[in-house]
Give the backbone structure.
Amino acid sequence: MTSALLCIVTLMADASNGNMRAGPLKKHYTLDEYQKFEERSAVRHEYHDGELFAMAGETANHSRICVNISTMLNVFLHESPCLVHDSNMKLHIKTRSFEKILYPDVSVTCHVNDQNNRTFMEQPKVIVEVLSKSTALYDRTDKFQFYKHVHSLENYILVDQYQRLLEVFQKVPDQLNSWLLTTWDSNEFQLPAIQFTGRIADIYHKVHL
């Protein structure tokens, strides 16, 4: 989910800009312990190498945009084996250097292993994040870097909830860590990963800008 990482135990002031940044739980969790904790928790948490970070709630615009995008993609992929997930679906990313569990706002996975896994996905083709003032930097930088380690990912989409603006990142084939950015602010947009063409107006339907 795009929501900001909140402090679970204590908030610490960032002296450089006055912002508040989150501190993790002192306990170090295994992945199994995290999953059991998350099942009982009323608040969702991102998992970062054994540390848990709580996630803030959504605005009405954020929620509406996610519903609109999920609906568009689900209708388009209705006859396809691909699955569309909302922000309740976890994404597991494990490399030699880190292990993460994240909650994308909207995602599409076409991988057979993800279709049979009810706990989390690992091979999405498309990930969508709806930007907010508190999370835009995280979504553009650290979170995008985490997502780049998902080898199946072909499109990463950032959606502005304050104006009609879509940023679609397309992975460049056969080029390590190379992504092409296309910006859409009117009429139609395209997601090459699933050969989808949609209308910007449908994303912002009933969204008060």
